[in-house]
Each structure stands twice: as structure tokens, then as C-alpha cells.
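Ticket #4471: structure export looks truncated?
Reporter: QA, pipeline team
Priority: medium

Steps to reproduce: submit the single chain below to the structure queue and open the exported record.
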Amino acid sequence: MAGNKDYKNKMIEENRALIEGHIREILRLIGEDPDREGLMETPARVARMYEEIYRGYGVDPREVLGVTFDEQHEELVIVKDIVYYSQCEHHLAPFFGKVHIGYLPSGKIAGLSKFARLVEAVTRKLQVQERITSEIADILEEVLKPHGVMVVVTGEHLCMSARGVHKPGSTTVTSAVRGTFRSNAALRSEFLSLIKA
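Actual output as written to the record:
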């Protein structure tokens, strides 16, 4: 996760030779020659890529919020446009987009960079967008105990744009609403208008 602790997927480190062997076999099974010049290093490159895109398995997302601070600020805090990349668990195809987080503190805040780290920890594994959205909201609610949390996630899914129905440019939007955001329509509207600004 760029710019923070170096989280690693230890399973990939421990099983690198097996992963490379399986990638080589997949190349053969789809009709390729794994010994041709352009593919000879592909299994090793894929294993290194897996270390990066699946590093979310090497971290507890609750821990990335780190130290919280006692602060009596009880007004809306928004961290928006956090870019994420993930892998669809149904097709092993990438999907990506942005996460927007709003919360109403109740005496505890987290450093702003921690929200990006949380998004990375949750998205860098096999996922579905709906789970990402709920998981981020639930973790923030559990760790910060705010008055309310709202998370909106947008995503473009290659399993929908590059295969299947072939609809590039289509976007999926999911939201999770917790606490005060559930009962306060004005607060929800404020959050939604500010993430569009």
C-alpha cells in the first residue's frame, strides 16, 4: 500500500514456486507456449503482482486506523475520492473506482491518511463492491464509535465492461449508512452534495 507500512501476503511468499507453476500450466491450457520468449518470465511476474494486489490478506483492516485521537469536533468529516483497485471474486477480473467516507465524530477521530489505508486493506483481496462498502462502514463504526457513518463507493467492473454484456463506462454505486445518517435526511443530503463538489 503506497506510502505506508509494507503489508505482505505471506501465503504468496511461501507458495511462490507453486503459484508460478500453476500460472505456467494455465498458459499451456489456454493454448500458449509458456517457453516462448515473451512468456518465460510471466509466471514470476504474475506472482509478484499477486503479492501487491492481494496484500489485503496480510493485514487486519481494523489495525490500519492505528491510534485514534480524542477530539471534541462533532461536525461532519468527509474524506472523498479515495481511489481503489480490487479483484472481483466471481471472475478474478479487476474493478476499480473511488470511495467517499463521511462520519460524524463522537469524541474520537483518526488521522486522515488512515482512511486511505483502510480502503487499501479492505480492497486488496478478492471482493465484491457491496462487501467493500459495508465492511468499511462497519469497521469505522466499530473503531471510532461515531454518531454516524456513510460510505459511498463507485466502481467500474471489467467483468461487465470487458466481457459478458460488454458495457464499458458503466458504473456501479453502492452505499452504506450507519447511525445518525440513517435517520437524518439533511445530513445524508449534505454528505452527497459535498462528495459531488
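Status: closed, not a bug. The export was complete when the record was re-opened. Leaving a note from the reviewer for reference: Helices lie at 10-14, 16-29, 42-53, 112-123, 129-144, 158-161, 180-183, 185-196.
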